[in-house]
C-alpha cells in the first residue's frame, strides 16, 4: 500500500503543478482512482489525490459527465462495494462545499 500511496501523492503533485493540460490524460484514470477506495489503507491517499485534481485538472462538468466514473461509481448495479460509493459521495460533498476555493476549474456554475 505504501507504493500506491506514494504514486497517488505524485499524481496529486502533478495535478497541482501541471494543471488543466493534464485533463485529457487524467479523465480516463478516474475509474481507477475511485476503485482504490476499496482498500481502506489507500482511501485517504486516493481522496487527497482527487482533492488536488479537482479544481486544477477536473471540473464539475468532468465529474458529473455520464461517460466519466462518478455516475458509474455511484450506481449500485455497477459498483457493489458500498465503501467506494460512500467515499465517492464524500468526495463530491467536499467538492461542492469547497467550490470556488480550489483552482480555476473548481467553481460551481
Describe the overall structure.
- By secondary structure, this protein is mostly helical.
- Helix 1 runs parallel beside helix 4 (43-53) and helix 4 (43-53) runs parallel beside helix 7.
- The protein has seven helices and no strands.
- 27% of the residues are buried.
Layout: helices, strands, pairs:
Layout (H helix, E strand, L loop, with lengths): L1 H17 L4 H4 L3 H6 L7 H11 L6 H5 L4 H6 L7 H16 L12
Low-confidence stretches: none
How many DSSP E strands?
0
Largest sheet: none
Q: Could you say which overall geometry the principal axes of the C-alpha atoms support? A: globular
Q: What is the helical fraction, as a range of percent?
A: 55-70%
Series of secondary-structure elements, N-terminal to C-terminal: HHHHHHH
Span between N and C termini? Answer: 37 Å
What portion of residues belong to β-strands? Answer: under 5%
Mean pLDDT: 87
The value of Rg in angstroms is 13 Å
**What is the tally of helical segments?**
7
Structural class: mainly alpha
Amino acid at each position: 500500500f505504501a507504493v500506491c500511496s506514494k504514486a497517488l501523492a505524485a499524481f496529486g503533485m502533478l495535478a497541482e503543478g501541471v494543471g488543466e493540460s493534464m485533463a485529457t490524460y487524467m479523465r480516463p484514470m478516474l475509474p481507477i482512482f475511485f476503485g482504490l477506495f476499496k482498500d481502506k489503507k489507500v482511501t485517504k491517499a486516493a481522496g487527497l489525490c482527487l482533492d488536488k485534481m479537482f479544481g486544477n485538472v477536473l471540473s464539475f462538468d468532468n465529474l458529473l459527465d455520464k461517460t466519466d466514473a462518478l455516475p458509474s461509481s455511484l450506481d449500485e448495479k455497477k459498483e457493489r462495494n458500498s465503501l467506494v460509493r460512500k467515499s465517492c459521495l464524500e468526495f463530491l460533498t467536499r467538492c461542492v462545499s469547497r467550490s470556488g476555493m480550489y483552482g480555476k476549474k473548481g467553481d460551481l456554475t
